[in-house]
Amino acid sequence: MSFKKNRWYVFPTFIAFCLFVLNDCALMEGHKIPEVKEVKTEAELGASLDEGVKEAISGKWKRGESGDMIEFLRDGTVKFYSPIENAVYPGTYRVDDDKHITTQLEQGGSITWGFVVSKSELQLTAPSGLVLKYRKTP
To answer: What is the span of the domain harbouring residue 111?
Structure first.
Protein backbone atom coordinates (compact mmCIF):
# COMPACT_ATOMS: atom_id res chain seq x y z
CA MET A 1 0.00 0.00 0.00
CA SER A 2 1.19 3.44 -0.80
CA PHE A 3 1.07 6.02 2.01
CA LYS A 4 -0.05 8.76 -0.38
CA LYS A 5 -3.01 6.69 -1.57
CA ASN A 6 -4.10 5.75 1.96
CA ARG A 7 -3.13 8.79 4.01
CA TRP A 8 -6.76 9.60 4.84
CA TYR A 9 -6.55 6.72 7.35
CA VAL A 10 -3.88 8.52 9.39
CA PHE A 11 -5.94 11.30 11.00
CA PRO A 12 -8.97 9.21 12.05
CA THR A 13 -6.62 6.45 13.26
CA PHE A 14 -4.57 8.97 15.24
CA ILE A 15 -7.70 10.47 16.84
CA ALA A 16 -9.06 7.03 17.74
CA PHE A 17 -5.69 6.06 19.25
CA CYS A 18 -5.52 9.29 21.31
CA LEU A 19 -9.06 8.82 22.63
CA PHE A 20 -8.26 5.20 23.51
CA VAL A 21 -5.09 6.20 25.41
CA LEU A 22 -6.83 9.05 27.22
CA ASN A 23 -9.67 6.74 28.17
CA ASP A 24 -7.24 4.19 29.61
CA CYS A 25 -5.36 6.90 31.51
CA ALA A 26 -8.59 8.17 33.02
CA LEU A 27 -9.59 4.65 34.07
CA MET A 28 -6.14 3.99 35.59
CA GLU A 29 -6.46 7.16 37.66
CA GLY A 30 -9.83 5.99 38.97
CA HIS A 31 -11.83 8.56 37.06
CA LYS A 32 -15.12 7.56 35.63
CA ILE A 33 -15.79 8.80 32.12
CA PRO A 34 -19.18 10.51 32.04
CA GLU A 35 -21.90 8.81 30.11
CA VAL A 36 -23.44 10.63 27.18
CA LYS A 37 -26.72 12.15 28.26
CA GLU A 38 -29.87 11.67 26.30
CA VAL A 39 -30.11 14.39 23.67
CA LYS A 40 -33.03 16.76 24.18
CA THR A 41 -35.18 17.84 21.29
CA GLU A 42 -35.12 21.40 19.98
CA ALA A 43 -38.60 21.92 21.39
CA GLU A 44 -37.25 21.18 24.87
CA LEU A 45 -34.19 23.37 24.45
CA GLY A 46 -35.89 26.21 22.69
CA ALA A 47 -34.79 27.60 19.36
CA SER A 48 -33.23 30.66 20.99
CA LEU A 49 -30.57 28.59 22.81
CA ASP A 50 -29.70 26.71 19.62
CA GLU A 51 -29.42 29.90 17.57
CA GLY A 52 -27.48 31.69 20.31
CA VAL A 53 -24.89 28.91 20.53
CA LYS A 54 -24.62 28.63 16.75
CA GLU A 55 -24.05 32.39 16.56
CA ALA A 56 -21.36 32.25 19.26
CA ILE A 57 -19.37 29.35 17.78
CA SER A 58 -19.83 30.08 14.09
CA GLY A 59 -16.65 30.82 12.18
CA LYS A 60 -13.14 29.41 11.93
CA TRP A 61 -11.15 28.47 15.01
CA LYS A 62 -7.43 27.61 14.99
CA ARG A 63 -5.64 25.58 17.67
CA GLY A 64 -2.22 26.84 18.77
CA GLU A 65 0.83 26.04 16.74
CA SER A 66 -0.53 22.74 15.44
CA GLY A 67 -2.57 24.60 12.84
CA ASP A 68 -5.60 22.32 13.30
CA MET A 69 -8.76 24.24 12.52
CA ILE A 70 -12.48 23.80 13.04
CA GLU A 71 -15.14 25.72 11.15
CA PHE A 72 -18.67 25.80 12.51
CA LEU A 73 -21.37 27.05 10.13
CA ARG A 74 -24.79 28.32 11.20
CA ASP A 75 -26.52 25.66 9.09
CA GLY A 76 -25.30 22.91 11.46
CA THR A 77 -22.32 21.76 9.42
CA VAL A 78 -18.76 21.55 10.70
CA LYS A 79 -15.38 21.08 8.99
CA PHE A 80 -12.23 19.81 10.68
CA TYR A 81 -9.04 20.88 8.89
CA SER A 82 -5.84 18.85 9.27
CA PRO A 83 -2.71 20.68 8.04
CA ILE A 84 -0.59 17.55 8.56
CA GLU A 85 -2.66 15.56 6.09
CA ASN A 86 -3.76 18.58 4.08
CA ALA A 87 -7.30 17.25 4.40
CA VAL A 88 -10.78 18.43 5.38
CA TYR A 89 -13.16 16.23 7.37
CA PRO A 90 -16.77 17.42 6.98
CA GLY A 91 -19.62 16.62 9.29
CA THR A 92 -22.53 18.04 11.23
CA TYR A 93 -23.08 19.30 14.75
CA ARG A 94 -26.01 19.81 17.04
CA VAL A 95 -26.44 21.85 20.19
CA ASP A 96 -27.35 19.58 23.12
CA ASP A 97 -27.53 22.33 25.74
CA ASP A 98 -25.65 25.50 26.69
CA LYS A 99 -22.53 23.48 27.63
CA HIS A 100 -22.50 20.54 25.18
CA ILE A 101 -22.43 20.02 21.43
CA THR A 102 -22.24 16.77 19.49
CA THR A 103 -20.25 16.47 16.27
CA GLN A 104 -20.81 13.72 13.71
CA LEU A 105 -18.13 13.26 11.04
CA GLU A 106 -19.02 11.76 7.68
CA GLN A 107 -16.04 9.36 8.01
CA GLY A 108 -16.29 8.55 11.68
CA GLY A 109 -18.35 8.50 14.79
CA SER A 110 -19.96 11.14 16.92
CA ILE A 111 -18.40 12.91 19.91
CA THR A 112 -20.19 14.97 22.53
CA TRP A 113 -17.98 17.87 23.56
CA GLY A 114 -18.20 20.17 26.52
CA PHE A 115 -17.59 23.72 25.36
CA VAL A 116 -16.96 27.24 26.58
CA VAL A 117 -16.90 30.08 24.08
CA SER A 118 -16.04 33.77 24.15
CA LYS A 119 -15.57 36.24 21.31
CA SER A 120 -11.96 35.16 20.73
CA GLU A 121 -11.57 31.71 22.31
CA LEU A 122 -13.29 28.33 22.04
CA GLN A 123 -12.49 25.55 24.48
CA LEU A 124 -13.66 22.03 23.66
CA THR A 125 -13.51 19.25 26.24
CA ALA A 126 -13.59 15.66 24.99
CA PRO A 127 -15.43 12.95 26.96
CA SER A 128 -12.01 11.76 28.17
CA GLY A 129 -11.32 15.16 29.72
CA LEU A 130 -8.85 16.33 27.07
CA VAL A 131 -9.17 20.11 26.66
CA LEU A 132 -8.52 21.71 23.26
CA LYS A 133 -8.20 25.50 23.06
CA TYR A 134 -8.88 27.38 19.83
CA ARG A 135 -8.54 31.03 18.84
CA LYS A 136 -10.98 32.76 16.47
CA THR A 137 -9.47 33.48 13.06
CA PRO A 138 -10.42 36.44 10.87
So the answer is: 7-136
In the chain (138 residues long), the average pLDDT of successive 10-residue segments reads: 55 62 56 61 59 90 90 95 92 93 91 94 95 93
What is the Cα–Cα distance from 6 to 124, expressed in whole angstroms? 29
- Provide the pLDDT for residue 51: 84
| Beta carbons within 10 angstroms of residue 26's beta carbon | 16
Contacts of 58 (CB under 8 A, 6+ apart): 72, 73, 74
Residue 65 included in any domain: yes
- DSSP string covering 73-132, please? -TTSEEEEEETTTTEEEEEEEEEEETTEEEEEETTS-EEEEEEEE-SSEEEEE-TTS-EE
Distance CA 126, CA 115 (A): 9
